[in-house]
Amino acid sequence: MLAEERQNMIVSMVNRNGSVLVKELSGQFEVTEDSIRKDLTLLQKKGLLRKTYGGAVKVRVNEQERYVSQRKGKNLEDKQTIARKALEIIKERDVLFLDISTANLELARALAESGRKVTVVTNMIDVMLTLAGESGVKLIFLGGTFSEGRDGFVGAMTNQEIKRFRFDEAFMGVVGVDLERNTVTTYAAEDATTKKTILECTSRAYMMLETRKFSIDGNYVYASVDDFTGAILEKGVDSMVQKQMKRYAIEWII
Question: What three-state secondary structure class fits 12?
Answer without folding.
Answer: helix
